[in-house]
Fold:
Amino acid sequence: MFRFIGLCFRTLVRLLRARRSLLLENLVLRQQLAVLKRRHPWPRLDLLDKLLWVAVRRFWSGWQQSLIAVRPETVVRWHRGGFRLYWKLISKVRRPVGRRQTSKEVQELIFRTVVENPTWGAPRIHGELLMLGFDISERTICRWMEWELRNPEPVKRWLTFLRNHREAIAAMDFFTVPTITLSVVYCFLVISHDPRRILHVNVTKHPTSLWIVQRLREAIPFGSAPRFVIFDRDAKYGLEVPAAVRSLGVNPVRTSFESPWQNGVSERWVGSCQRDFLDHIIAIDERHGHR
Structure:
C-alpha cells in the first residue's frame, strides 16, 4: 500500500515537472548508464564526462538528485582542479616577475651559519655562500638574518593588545572564490572580535578603495563604531581606506607584512567558510556569490 502511494506521488511530481528538467535528467541518466557499461577493467569517467557534469552543474539546480556514478563533492573537486590547472598554465606563459624565491636549502644554510657564527655579518656570510657556489644577494641574506634573529617581544605585545581590547576590536579582510568560468570574485568581510559576529559581508569582481569605504560605512553605523579596526597591507586599501576609518572615529591598525596570524579571527572565519560552504558548491558569477 505504501509503495503504491509512493509511486503515485512520484508520478504526480514528474507530471508537474518542467520539460527542461525531464530532458536534463534523461540526458545525465543515459550518460551514467553509458559510463557504467565501460569495463576496461572497471567503469571510469573520462575528461568529456567530467566537463559534462561541470556544465550540468552550471545550468541545472537539481543535478545532485540524478548523480549516481560519483558524489556531488567529486564534481566540485573537478572544478577546483580545472581552476588550478588553468591559472597554472597562464602563470607559465607569462614572464616571471619579482625576485627569485630563495630555496629551502639556502634558507637553512643561512640560519645555521647565523647560529654557529653569531659575530658574522651579512657581508661575511654573503662571501662564504658565493665561495660555496650559491648566487644570492647580500640584501636577501640580511632579510633572512632578521627573520632568524627576530625578537619575540613584539609577538607578545600584539597578543596582549588583542586580549586586552577584544571588546573594542573589529577586523576586515578579503578572500577569493573561484567561479565556474575560471575567474575569481572577491569577498569582503567585517567581523567583530567579541562577540565574534559578522558585521558585513559583500562580494565584488573589481574591488577598489572607494568600494571598500562604502562597505565600511554600511558595516559601522554612526555611534556604535569599535575603537580599532585591524586589516592587512593589501594594495586594494590604498590611502583612502585608512583615512575613511579615521573619519569614522576609529583607529586603523595594520598588520605586519606576510603576517596573517595577526588577523587570526577573520582568517579562522574564512577557513570555516571555505571548509563548510565553498568546498561544496561552484560559484557561477558575482550575483551567485551574493546569494
Observations:
- The chain has twelve helices and five strands.
